[in-house]
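About this split. The held-out portion is used to measure sequence recovery: a designer receives only the structure tokens and must propose an amino acid at every position. Recovery is the fraction of positions where the proposal matches the reference. Here is one held-out target exactly as it appears in the evaluation file.
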């Protein structure tokens, strides 16, 4: 009996020591709750979701995919998730509105998606931004990022958004797709994977311009069009720094695996990130999936935030994010 008690005491002592050495963190006991978004912003997460299901990750994760950022932001507010994928403008807006509340604030961990917008044409007349002069351009995103980005690029090439082109905004990407497939719209600025859906339905529609490439042509290659990111609740980061560092390591590795397009496309369908694997397979090469963190991330996103701030300060919370917004490791 004494031997049993002694053995039990040793086990308890060992567990207590391990917990103390890890700063209260035991990866096997802690669950990291992650919210991601369907579409390009979620593509880089699918290999991590798959590895987690196979119990091949250091952290334990709970993943959930949502149709839009509108569904994710409330989860951060009520602390139902720890890490979340968001558009970078939404992340900045949320930070600026909650920076004074430590329990509710967030930090930008990494950028996962560059520009996913493309100029499509029913025809073969557009080979440069200047060729858009006199055209009617259909788009979604009035009063949001697509409008500000389009205006910035047009002006960068000496075109006035007010007088040199006609911009017609529609409310939904499904409507935008319908206009292009029917031929009613000759030119449209469209995000992936909607681009791939349109070109699959109507192969005559061509990608005329990459908005990401045109952005860099004006802003410079050091100023990336960083549109998707992952953030962490500040309170969770302070209590679980090792879990967050492990997440970033595992997430970066997962993003690297997206180069295997066939497997990634199948996983996108399996986890509800893109509805159909064939569409995902066609879209992934154009989705600009990336992984950028630390000081490089902070430097490269500055121009994008400046453009949004100059276009509409409220789009990023009425001020540029301060240094505390960025997690630099």
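Reference sequence for scoring:
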């Amino acid at each position: 009996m004494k031997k049993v008690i002694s053995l039990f005491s040793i086990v308890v002592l060992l567990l207590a020591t391990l917990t103390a050495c890890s700063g209260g963190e035991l990866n096997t006991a802690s669950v990291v709750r992650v919210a991601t978004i369907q579409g390009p912003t979620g593509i880089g997460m699918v290999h991590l979701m798959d590895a987690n299901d196979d119990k091949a990750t250091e952290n334990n994760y709970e993943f959930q995919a949502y149709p839009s950022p509108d569904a994710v932001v409330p989860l951060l507010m009520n602390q139902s998730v720890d890490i979340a994928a968001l558009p970078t403008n939404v992340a900045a807006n949320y930070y600026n509105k909650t920076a004074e509340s430590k329990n509710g604030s967030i930090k930008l961990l990494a950028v996962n998606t560059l520009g996913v917008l493309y100029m499509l044409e029913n025809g073969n007349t557009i080979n440069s931004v200047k060729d858009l002069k006199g055209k009617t351009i259909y788009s979604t995103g009035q009063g949001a990022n697509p409008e500000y980005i389009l205006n910035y690029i047009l002006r960068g090439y000496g075109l006035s958004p007010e007088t040199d082109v006609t911009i017609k905004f529609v409310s939904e990407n499904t409507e935008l797709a319908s206009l292009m497939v029917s031929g009613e719209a000759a030119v449209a600025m469209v995000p992936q994977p909607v681009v791939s859906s349109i070109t699959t339905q109507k192969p005559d529609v061509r990608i005329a311009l990459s908005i990401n490439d045109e952005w860099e042509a004006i802003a410079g290659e050091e100023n990336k069009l960083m549109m998707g990111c992952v953030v962490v609740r500040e309170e969770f980061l302070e209590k679980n720094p090792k879990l967050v560092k492990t997440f970033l390591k595992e997430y970066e590795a997962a993003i690297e695996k997206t180069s295997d397009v066939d497997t990634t496309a199948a996983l996108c369908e399996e986890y509800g990130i893109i509805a159909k694997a064939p569409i995902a397979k066609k879209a992934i090469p154009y989705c600009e999936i990336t992984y950028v963190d630390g000081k490089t991330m902070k430097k490269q996103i500055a121009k994008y935030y400046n453009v949004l701030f100059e276009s509409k300060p409220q789009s990023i919370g009425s001020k540029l994010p301060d240094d505390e917004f960025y997690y630099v490791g």
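Annotator remark: The first helix runs from residue 2 to 21.
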